[in-house]
Each structure stands twice: as structure tokens, then as C-alpha cells.
Amino acid sequence: MRNWFGNDGNWIVAGLAAAAVVPALSFLAGMPVWIAAIIGFLVFVGLIFVLAPKRMFEGLDAKAIGRGRLDFARDLLSAAAPAAQRLEASASQISSKETAKRVRHLAEIATDVFAKVEVNPESAGTVRRFLSYYLPRAAEVAEGFAAIEAKRQPDTARLREVELVLTKLEDAFVHYSDSLVDDRLDTLDTELRLIQASLKEDIGR
Fold first, then answer.
1. Where are the domains of the chain?
2. In terms of C-beta density within 10 A (0-12 exposed, 13-18 middle, 19 or more buried), how is residue 94 classed?
3. Confidence band (pLDDT; 50, 70, 90) for 119?
């Protein structure tokens, strides 16, 4: 049931708060134990819901967007999330400061892409290849670099090769992140043309 209402974190905090409320009301406020227990339970349940992590696409109008598009975006992000987590975790396992910085940058771009798709699920198709191919491959490459680096005698040629691939992946990540902005700019250009046409018709300029 914990998975329905958040992760372990909100349950732990809610449990600790309830555990503190019951003795405080009972011993400090002189409240009957059974009443304190009821209040503690209500505090526990309330905090579970209040502290539960925000669900993906929460607050968006599914009817306006389209259930199919929303489900597509949700499935795409859900499938890509583990790779994003692996990519972020691998940065802390890499000794090379420059490479670790590059991997962190990749993880930051991935987070940015996730955030943009959550705001605009209809853009998911634009970054489908990024989420389903480039992101998982980047996680594998970063983990591979960490594994080579961890050897007692690392193969410097292989490390350079992996670094080169990470550099190219960084370019691909930036390209896909910017493509989400380009989509919005295309919409803006259309709106500008329509506004200019209306202004010319209404006020002659």
C-alpha cells in the first residue's frame, strides 16, 4: 500500500510525527490516551498524503491533452527514469573531475528534459529517441568509464575513447533538450504571424 501513497520517506516522517504527538498530548497536555491515540492516527494519515511525492503529470487536464498522449508520455518517462538515476549515480563513482563533471551535466540535461515533458506531455514524441536510446546508452557508457577507471592498471586508450563518446553524447543531449524549446518557438512564430495579420487587417499596420 505504501507505493500507492508515496515512498518510504513520507511514511517514516508521518510515523515519527504521530509517535511524538501521542505522548505529548497524553502526558504534557493531560489528554486521555485513547483521544491522543486517535489524534495521533489522524496526524499520521494526514501527513502521509501531505508529504507524498507529486505524481507525474499531476494537475494536468487529461481530457484536454488526450489520454493516449498522456499515457505515452508517462510510459516513456517511467521507462527512462532508471537510466537517469544510473547516470546521476555513476558521476560519484568517477575519479576524473572533468569526466565526472560532464556526466553530471548529462544528468542535469536529462532532468531538464523530464521537467519539460512533464509540463508539456505533447512534446514527448520529440525526445522519444533521446529517452529510449541515448539516455540508457549514456548511463552504460558512464558506468563503463567508472569500471575501467577502477582497474589497477586502467587502459588509458579506452578511457580516452569513452571520454570522446561522452563528449558526443553531451552534444546529443543538448540538441534534444533544445529541440523541446524549438517546438515552442515554432508555435510562437505561428502566433506572431497570426497577430501581425490581424493587426494589418484591423489597423492597417
1. 2-51, 69-203
2. buried
3. confident
**C-alpha dist (Å) from residue 185 to 173, 190, 192:** 19, 9, 10
Cα separation, 78 vs 71, in Å, equals 10
25 CB neighbour count, 10 Å cutoff? 20
Residue 46 scores a pLDDT above 70? no
**Higher-scoring residue by pLDDT: 125, 1:** 125
Longest dimension (CA), the chain: 79
* Ramachandran category for residue 60: left, alpha or beta (phi over 0 → left; psi -120 to 50 → alpha): beta
pLDDT for res 69: 75
* CA 103/CA 98 separation, integer angstroms: 9
| Cα→Cα distances 180→58, 114, 117, 166, 172, Å | 20, 11, 8, 22, 13
| Nearest residue to 1 via CA among 43, 58, 41, 45 | 45
Q: Quote the CA–CA distance of 132 and 79 in Å, as a whole number.
A: 8
From the list 100, 112, 177, 97, the residue with the least C-alpha distance to 143 is 100
Grid cell for residue 133: 536510446
Mean pLDDT of 183-203: 69
- Distances, alpha carbon 157 to alpha carbons 90, 101, 152, 203, in Å: 20, 20, 15, 67
